[in-house]
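Hi U.,

Before I forget, here's the chain from the pilot set. I'm dumping it here mostly so it's searchable later in email.
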Amino acid sequence: MLCRGRRFGGSVVESLPAMMETEMTEFVSTQVQGGVAYLTLTRPQALNALSLEMIRAITGALQSWENDPAVHAMVVAGAGGKAFCAGGDIRWFYQAHQANDPLLDQFFVEEYALNHLIHRYAKPYIALMDGVVMGGGMGISQGARLRIVTERTKMAMPETNIGLFPDVGGGWFLARTQGHIGEYLGLTGAVIGAADAIYAKLADAYLPTNAIAEMVASLQARQFTSGEAVLEQIASFTRQHADACVPSTSQLASNAALIDTLFAGASAQAILAAVSDAEGDWAAQTAATLRSRSPLMLCVTLEQIRRARTMSLEDELRMELDMMHDVFRHGDGIEGIRALVIDKDHQPKWNPPRLDEVSGARVRAFFDSPWRKDDHPLATLGA
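Structure:
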């Protein structure tokens, strides 16, 4: 990354002035000033990972602001300087599953409803994607009208690493990246930075972290009467800082032709074979990554992304809830979380252990809904 000027540090939310009227629930802070609402995730010790209570607090705030004529736009950020949001609270997922807690299913119902609300939000929703942005963090940012990344952005949909699949609308937005980048990111869970995010159209604009704090301060110094005026203020600010710092060259762009060739295969097994046969360090590292992932969820994820290309967002989110109903009951999710997060032995016992042992029938079963159409918990999305 080539930068000029000051070194960057600190948290975006450190610039929020004390004079702002603040409301807080546990791990979520909301503020309104000058016609702009600010929502901050305040769970930095867990990289702002989402709990069910946080999802409910965010949903309530967004619904309130959407109907408030004094609010014209909203800005969401993460506290602590390390993460926007690292995803869902997977440690709680494991504990809830072990306790047979019905709130585990309810978590995903409400999370996906929140993801839909953000994608269809009536007012400009602006996501400041500074630091770690993974899993559930992508779910509360990809539907934003404006997605801003920084030199600290570490973006990924890493679910196959723990035996899950890229949910929170992941199938839908990964399927809409160019070429076969969606398959590459979904299957490998690769972590990308700002340049890659912009290239893949998973981000809209870039600013260095300290410039984001200055931008927030510039918003707070004004009184806005429309959401478009807020967006224009941000656009003007980014133009002023266009030369301050530029992201490094996108590795996705450099490897785009290779990705499109290797990840076009009809099956996960065909993709792994193609990657394994390719020359170079990148291909070797990518093949090693694929071999470490859950074979079952590689196949499920590929099917999810391919199906999502022709689906509406609403139908894709309903499909994800059907899939999630199975993943903790018949998939590798609990074993992946155990190995990577709970016991940390990093030796997951995937079932089955090999790609060539994954049956088509088992993959297709993930896409069978346990609910009748009218009884689906997300039946009213888009109504």
